[in-house]
Amino acid sequence: MSKKKIVARLSPIHGNGVFADELILKGERIVRYKGKVRRHEDVDEEYGDVDENGHTFLFTLSEKYVIDANIDGNVARWINHSCEPNCEAVLDENSKGKQHKNKVYIEAIRDIHPGEELTYNYGIVLDEPHTAKLKKLWGCRCGAKKCTGTMLQPKRR
After folding, report:
1. Which domain holds residue 51?
2. Is 109 within a domain?
3. Nearest to 75 by CA among 41, 115, 35
4. What CATH number is attached to the domain comprising 67?
5. Phi, psi (rounded to 5 degrees) for 94
6. How many separate domains does the chain show?
7. Over the stretch 43-83, which tens digit does the pLDDT of each residue have?
8. 151, 138 contact by CB (below 8 A)
């Protein structure tokens, strides 16, 4: 896992982004998503009163835990969402079942060429109905041909 292969800079998708500085091959583990591991209830308490803005550095690790990249986060927090991603987030579960020790890695799902922005599908799932307001709040700006217009995942029927 070589961090030298990626660089953060301004993105045409949104804010900061992460770009390949060298060829990254399909299947390559690129970077670990780092931050402070916290309980959902602690994160809800801290950020619950903050108005949603469609921007988050929280990565769900398990039913009990999230990675809060607002605290001790690394470059992986700048990887943007896309409806046609070139990467995926892979959960590496702790072999002893300790959920707070699980890790998330970003891996290439196809070859990524120098200068290309790294993206993955955020897979945001909300329990509440997907209203027009929520879809706009979590709007997607990836520009892909098959862009859904939202980072929210379709409701299961």
Report:
1. 3-137
2. yes
3. 35
4. 2.170.270.10
5. -60, 130
6. 1
7. 888 877 665 655 678 898 988 999 999 999 999 999 999 99
8. yes
